[in-house]
Amino acid sequence: MAGRVDLDGNPIKQITICMIGAGGFIGSHLCEKLLSETPHKVLAVDVYSDKIKHLLEPATVTWADRIQFHRINIKNDSRLEGLIKMADLTINLAAICTPADYNTRPLDTIYSNFIDALPVVKYCSENGKRLIHFSTCEVYGKTIGAFLPKDSPLRQDPAYYVLKEDTSPCIFGPIEKQRWSYACAKQLIERLVYAEGAENGLEFTIVRPFNWIGPRMDFIPGIDGPSEGVPRVLACFSNNLLRREPLKLVDGGESQRTFIYIKDAIEAVLLMIENPARANGHIFNVGNPNNEVTVRQLAEMMTKVYSKVSGESSIEIPTIDVSSKEFYGEGYDDSDKRIPDMTIINRQLGWNPKTSLWDLLESTLTYQHRTYAEAVKQAMSKTTAN
């Protein structure tokens, strides 16, 4: 770690980072990266620590003096401001970000992603602390291309569907489509962060993740994720594959998405952390436009990858079509494409993703297959013991 320099050749100083949501999927990988490859200290804030247990125990790990876990719910804990004051940088990863919740728990979704984030922004601004705020690619909503006639050749023009941080509009469905509660709350907190920067000099960076995938993402309800609700598409498909059930394609699986490996994405975040002069005041898409597929193509590829990693043959009917109303309930709506433009992050931080879709799926499904097998074995041994 000695002699580390930033992108401009300046020595990187050790800093203290208050990471809110450190116990989640992204937080656990970011903590791992910071502790193993940098000299920085982490004040890890979350209500759960399962995913970072290996970083906290035993007390003899080489970085034991560089990480502290604080079990705090940011909704109502006065200790939060003290931790932000102790740190040089705050990273806010806390959010409700499960698609079914946008529809069925819109109030929780809005409060979690806007109201609960307000004190974090306020404390950073009032105490002169830098903030890296995690938003979402959902803030873009629908593409301009979605409103063109189905047979319009303009639908193929990147200007109508590639999403750019500084020029693309944020287009949401009508108010009764409560699926947009998450995107709208996230957009408003982005606007607040930006306004704090403009009016009060807050140093900020906003991150818009595009489907970050990898080991430790929530995928088994009640074991490695919430016991209720419908998770994101890749987690849904993982569950179906593990249980040897058909993969459900919502409205034919025609929506298009891009997927990026968590380790590639964390490299980008580390560059933001260690290059404030290049990252402050910017919004960054972090995704992999090369890994673009329709949801149907994703289902087909995951079925093949899972057969390879598990040694099991595919089931007779690998996919079934379901309507969005049947799957998510009344009031659901969707975006057609989410392709990130990477110009700004490439220009500012020189970053590009590396891992192919096949490789990231193989890594993720290998981990999930192993974890699921262990969970089933433990459940069976408990049943036998009883």
TrEMBL record:
It comes from the Eukaryota. The keyword NAD applies. Residues 17-287 form the NAD-dependent epimerase/dehydratase domain. It holds the Pfam family Epimerase. Keywords: NAD. The keyword NAD applies. CDD domains: Arna_like_SDR_e. InterPro entries: Arna-like_SDR_e, Epimerase_deHydtase, Lipid_A_modif_metabolic_enz, NAD(P)-bd_dom_sf. This is NAD-dependent epimerase/dehydratase domain-containing protein.
